[in-house]
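Supplementary Methods, section 5.1.

A reviewer requested that the exact input to the structure prediction be made available. We therefore reproduce it here, unchanged from the version used in the analyses.
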Amino acid sequence: GHIPERERMNKRDDRAREDNAKADEMAARADVIERQADNTIYSDDPDAIEALEARIAGLEAERDAIKAYNASCRKGAPDVDLLTDSQRRDLANVKQVAAYSLGKGGAMPSYALTNLSGNISRQKKRLGSLRNPRPELPRLLNPVKYAGECRTCGQTIERGESALYWKAAKELEHDACYQRGEAIVTSGFGSSWRHSGEITRRASAPRTPAPGPQGPSRARWSSFCASCSSGS
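The structure derived from this sequence is encoded token-by-token as follows.
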């Protein structure tokens, strides 16, 4: 029959198992985050470029290993010794749970090379941005929320005044002070950079209608004649 006390005990046991499983999951996530933090390369690190170069070299070596293994599979003689230890473990896991994703002759799944190539491309793009960093551009604040000193002339910029804001340094600057030193050049493709030297502004000439009437044409909207005021 129904025993309320036993049901309550079972529910407590179920909750305890759920709590333990949740604790194990959070601990595993913490371990992953810690490992990622240990391998993280910050852009402001003094050896960031060297670390990225080493990472790219390692990723390219992994890609070459997979390519060599896949070539041996196509020849009918798979050689797992061409793979790294982690790649051999991944291959064994795939064979066990998703053998259908293997390539011809037991080759590594196609996504392995795709993911590696994408990661290499991202790392190379980041390496290029570190080698040739794009200069910071100020953001126009109109008006500023807090008063401060201009980073160039040192004069006070009052609250409500228009000024430029340098986000990284958290500094304000008069637009006139900035324009005297450097100009922002924008290309037709939407990219911008800073150019030192004299600033030249080229404004397109305003379009002015030719004097006198433009000749008869069909009116697009109903209106009144300028001479007799009759509707048209």
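The chain is about 45% helix and 10% strand. These observations are discussed further in the main text.
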